[in-house]
Amino acid sequence: MLQKIRGNDQKGFTLIELMIVIAIIGILAAIAIPNFIAYRKRGYNSQANADVKNAFTSCQAYFVDYTGMDCSLNGASSSGWKKSEDTACSITGPSTALSIHCTHPEGDKQFSTDDTGEITEWHYE
């Protein structure tokens, strides 16, 4: 069809057609890339949040087996907890003063819980 409009046998696209396509791709990339980065960050935060929930559950199981003992990373692991890759977690304390903190280096929040099981989050940059 382009050949009929141009009136000759040249093949290919004109410079303006290529520039329009490149501009459209640029606009789509400008919209998509920031959203993609935000989705990844939310995923990392969810991973840290899930680690806190699972560690709390494992520590509760640990306290049933070892009454009066402090739960730690090893104690939670022995009760079936497996920390997600790259997530940094700390677990300390007995059942009455439990403290669990998890964060992911690519996320922007730290998640914590205590012996009540209520999860709190702190936003950082």
From TrEMBL:
Major place of residence: membrane
Coiled coil stretches, renumbered: none
- Write down any Gene Ontology CC term: membrane
List the InterPro entries hit by this protein, alphabetically: N_methyl_site, Pilin-like
Q: Where are the transmembrane segments?
A: 12-37
UniProt subcellular location: Membrane
Q: How does it sit in the membrane?
A: Single-pass membrane protein
Q: What Pfam families does this protein map onto? A: N_methyl
User: PROSITE patterns of this UniProt entry?
Assistant: PROKAR_NTER_METHYL
Keyword line:
Membrane, Methylation, Transmembrane, Transmembrane helix
Under NCBIfam families, the record lists: IV_pilin_GFxxxE
Name this protein carries in UniProt = Prepilin-type cleavage/methylation N-terminal domain-containing protein
Species of origin reads Desulfonema magnum
